[in-house]
Amino acid sequence: MSTDISDLNGRPVIIGGGAAGLMTALQLAPERVVLLSKSPLGAEASSMWAQGGLAAPVGADDSPALHLADTLAAGAGLCDAAAASRIVHAAPAAVEQLARLGVAFDRHADGSWRLGLEAAHRRNRIVHATGDGTGREIMRALIAAVRQTPSITLLEGVEARRLIVEDNAVRGVLAASASGALTIATNRVVIATGGIGGLYADSTNPGGCFGQGLALAAHAGAKLSDIEFVQFHPTAFDGPSRPMPLLTEAIRGDGAVLIDETGQRFMADQPGAELAPRDIVARAVWRHRAAGHRTFLDARKHPGVDFAQRYPVISAFCKMAGIDPSHDLIPIRPAVHYHMGGIAVDGFGRSTVQGLWACGEAARTGLHGANRLASNSLMEAIVCARWVAESIESVSAGPRAMLRDDAMSQASDPSAVRPILTQGLGVLRDRDGIARAIRSLYPLACGHSVASDAALIGLMVAIAAIRREESRGGHFRSDFPHTAASAVPSSLTRVDALAAARDIVESTPFAWSALS
Fold it and tell me: Picking from 118-132, 181-195, 390-404, 457-471, which range would have the lowest pLDDT averaged per residue?
């Protein structure tokens, strides 16, 4: 590696090469920062795959108050209303900032925004770029800006393995590359590593997004919040490809409907029909499939012949599968798409560990509650990056003390964890299924294998899920199908989760054979 690592000591370190990490680095300019990306920029970032766009109240008939109301309704009582209000009020300015960075958003001939409609939005407020290629276009512009910013030292192919923490304060980052291990002394670290979709067999996320940032934070002693809430997108393309291609909700916003092999429109009688909140649609599709039906997205009439022009990316992969959406049904099924929970942070992205911030999907800001409103996530990443940067700028670099030699952890592999979470922590959950998952994950999480970090995050999700004895948003318990009168956020540390799992495993040893 040609970069002199010793010259990087003392700089803020941003871990993650998606939209949240890139935007945070740009917001910190001209302060010198280090950006770590385990893959070439964009290669394993969920942001690159985002089709829907950014939700922002920029339409003439819209307002931040309406956007906030829709966000709170989708969040099923678990949003932080003050945080959500602050974020949605900042959304229009974030869109304008991206446009200044060169993002080519879709516009009408008069220059006004071309706005789409998605589920649970009462207004057309989704700002798109190149139809269904919004994430790709945003990442193109951000990557170009980062590469042209001299204050950003970009280390691609470098993976953060552990944070060095003393007295609940960050002191450095242990990382690994093809050239070997490296240690960067710093008292300012941002985790922007994305979600946990790679912990499941069926996901629309890149396979490399499996909660590594959450594991870094958990090992550092940070609190995680609301991590039982996993959003399943109801319309992933039902085929052999992994990650699963996504069929954006905007297609249903354009009038496409869900039908089965008999032609029955099985969502027609539900409030909101195909544009009901995602958790409701996902469960309806899941149950219909469990009853023996096949499920399809029918876009033959709407958008019909305009499909390829409106959704070129989706049209291309459908064509590769031998499907013409203007004439053929598109097979769909639910798949893991977004993680509402994450590292517990305040309004400036600060975690419970001094010197550790989080931004994007890895953070739990309180915006999404129990069920993310469509297209609020890219918007959140862009908006919150500015506040994270402002907070970091207020903290001076710490002393460049000699760091101790910490043992380098292995690279993680979630393969052993995927079938466990897929079976026990899916669209529909119950105590027995979650308990089986805990029993399988606990020894892996306590070990030192390549599966340990992935198992730890899976275990923490399972502990949070077994404790929440209600159904709310993305967390549905078939043994507790009703929603509790009050919404209480969950909070969990690594130590808490391991102790709770041990108690569950040891308290009913006689029952495990029956549950296996």
Answer: 390-404
CB neighbour burial string for 435-470, b if at least 16 within 10 angstroms, e if fewer: bbbbbbbbebbeeeebbbbbbbbbbbbbbbbbebeb
Entry pTM = 0.93
Q: How far is CA 497 from CA 235, 325, 456, 460, in A?
A: 33, 46, 9, 6
Catalytic residue among 125, 188, 278, 350: 278
Rounded distance, CA 211 to CA 445, Å? Answer: 13
Beta bridge pairs of residue 358: 191
CA 326 to chain centre: 31
Predicted local distance difference test score (pLDDT) of residue 513: 39
d(CA 261, CA 298): 11
* Nearest residue to 181 via CA among 359, 1, 349: 1
Signed CA dihedral, 136, 141, 147, 149: sign only? negative
Q: Hey, what are 210's tokens?
A: 């499996």
Secondary structure of 138-149 in HEC code, one letter for each residue: HHHHHHHHHHCC
Average pLDDT in the 288-297 region? 97
Segment holding 297, helix H or strand E: strand 295-298
Q: Would you call 355 helix, strand, or coil by DSSP? A: coil
Q: Has 278 been annotated as catalytic?
A: yes
Question: What pLDDT is stored for residue 384 in this prediction?
Answer: 98
Q: What's the CA gap between 140 and 113, in Å, rounded?
A: 20
> Helices 134-147 and 19-28, interaxial angle, to 10°?
40
List of residues 6+ apart from 248 with CB closer than 8 A: 51, 52, 118, 132, 311, 314
Cβ atoms of residues 498 and 446 within 8 Å: yes
Q: pLDDT (tens digit, 9 = 90+) per residue, 217-276? A: 999 999 999 999 999 999 999 999 999 999 988 899 899 999 999 999 999 999 999 988
Rounded to whole angstroms, the Cα distance separating 67 from 473 reads: 18
Identify the structural domains of the chain with CATH numbers, from first to last. 5-195+340-393 (3.50.50.60), 236-334 (3.90.700.10), 410-515 (1.20.58.100)
Residue with tokens 């057309």: 124
**Pairing mode, strands 189-191 and 13-15:** parallel
